[in-house]
Design goal:
flat, mainly alpha, 4 helices
């Protein structure tokens, strides 16, 4: 698997193992956003923000994804 494909496989597993890990949701959302899967990215970064409202980098991905959707 390539690094992106591996990430798409690994992040959901990491989230399943520790559903309270905001950075895992953020990282997953960031990869999804990079792949232009903006709606999926928004779901993930919203989870990250809910778990850690101070995770500023998640807001950046959230804003980028919303802007990209129009």
């Amino acid at each position: 698997l390539g690094r992106i494909e591996e990430a798409l496989f690994q992040f959901p597993m990491a989230i399943k193992l520790n559903p309270n890990h905001a950075d895992a949701y953020y990282n997953y959302g960031s990869v999804l956003s990079d792949l232009e899967r903006y709606e999926d990215a928004i779901v993930q970064v919203q989870s990250a923000i809910k778990l850690n409202p101070n995770l500023s980098k998640a807001y950046s991905v959230y804003g980028t994804a919303l802007h990209s959707l129009g």
